[in-house]
Amino acid sequence: MNNIDKIFADDNDPQAFTKAYFSYLNTVLQNIDTLEVVQFIETILDARERGVTVYIIGNGGSAATASHIANDFAIGINDYEKPLRVTSLTDNVAVLSAIGNDFGYDEIFVRQLRVYAKKGDVLVGISASGNSVNLINAFDFAKTVGIKTVAITAFDGGKMKSIADEGIHVPTEEKEYGPAEDAHMILDHLVSGYLMRYINND
To answer: Is the pLDDT of residue 202 over 80?
Structure first.
């Protein structure tokens, strides 16, 4: 039984559940290694300095987070002279369905990277479990062509955490998708909030 199940089992009153959920989420956030966040910020700023592209990938709720991050980093920063080139590979339904239909869902990201990505780019994968085959395939491909990999994970981090060049791990128990994805979105707003102010004051 994970922590969210325990919270509900202890008291299924909506108010009690809400308070306990917030309390647990705060614990999760407090246990994130802030140095991993710092390293991620430095990686994004380095990509901006070099003029390379940051690609973001994920499935399900993490696909939505990938879209949100791409929006916040690329457009929300509001710098067009020296922009952050960040794009989500989750957003083109025609491309995703074509690749999925013709080659299988496990290929939906790696085949896009083969078309768009170049040596020196950055690939950010978002996954609670860290074990999605399409993400692992993309990370394996990235390593063969000199693309830096960043894993944003939860649970135990899975295979993606172990093969990534760097990452941010959100320490939750298995199947705690809510707190994991909550924390991933908070990381988006934390990092984009910092980048916006840092770049606009540069």
So the answer is: no
Closest CA to 147 of 189, 187, 89, 188: 89
For CA atoms 27, 185, 19, 14, the dihedral sign is: negative
Instruction: Specify the DSSP class assigned to residue 155.
Output: T
* Unique residue bearing structure tokens 């939906």: 108
Taking the CA atoms of the chain, what radius of gyration do you get in angstroms?
A: 17
DSSP 98-153: HHHHHH-GGGTTHHHHHHH--TT-EEEEEESSS--HHHHHHHHHHHHHT-EEEEEE
Long-range residue pairs from 74-80, CB within 8 A, at least 24 positions apart, any chain: 76/192, 76/196, 77/192, 77/195, 77/196, 77/199, 77/200, 78/196, 78/200, 79/199, 79/200
Dihedrals φ, ψ of 166, to 5°?
A: -160, 175
CATH architecture for the domain at 33-200:
3-Layer(aba) Sandwich (3.40)
Find the helix or strand (DSSP H, E) in which 54 lies: strand 53-58
Structure tokens at 117: 């990505």
Rounded distance, CA 200 to CA 202, Å? 6
For the chain, the domains span: 1-30, 33-200
**For residue 28, which of 141, 132, 154, 166 has the smallest C-alpha distance?**
154
| Per-residue model confidence as pLDDT tens digits over 71-110 | 999 999 888 899 999 999 999 999 999 999 999 999 999 9
